[in-house]
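Per reviewer request, we include the raw input and output of the structure prediction for the construct analysed in the revised manuscript.
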Amino acid sequence: MNKIDPKLKKKLVYATNEVKNFLAPVNDISEDDARKIIKRYTAAIEGNFLSWMGGASISARSIVSRFAADENLWVELKDDHPSMLRNFAKCCQAEPDSQDFQHVHNEVMKIRNLVGELSGLKNITLMATLENTSVAFIPWLVELAKKLGCKDLTYTDVHGEADIEHADQFLEALTDEQSLGYDNSEKDIDLTINLTLKLLKKSFVL
């Protein structure tokens, strides 16, 4: 395993703690609000995550980064993770509608525009941030789903098991990607982490 830059790890630990701080206690969330959160998360992620991972794959300069993105993209496609998420939302009676898509629209568009720059550093940072912070929000989504009586936890089970490994994998990838001499790399990493946190906050905070 390649060395993980402790400064990058610190940034992603910070991001994960930020997510933990804005996730409301499940006992304080009504069933209606739990559905609203799952609707918004689904609207933000279901139709976008594959293309964002694809952007990371084609823009990464580092072989380590490209392998991480390609491997994750392969699993997402092979096991149809968008359908897993949709089935999860259905089971929670929380399929998104136009209001949910509109609610997250601005934050989603900022991420799409960032991915469209095809900066390997920014796109690997995006993936590293989502994979690392999911360690905080996936267990929280599980508890919201249980509150709603959802029995199909395939999506959260798969991501709960895999994302710890993927978090480290993308930290290693980001370390390698940054080492390739990007201009303003610290600024771009911080910008990407902050945009990702804003997307998650818009999805999870009522």
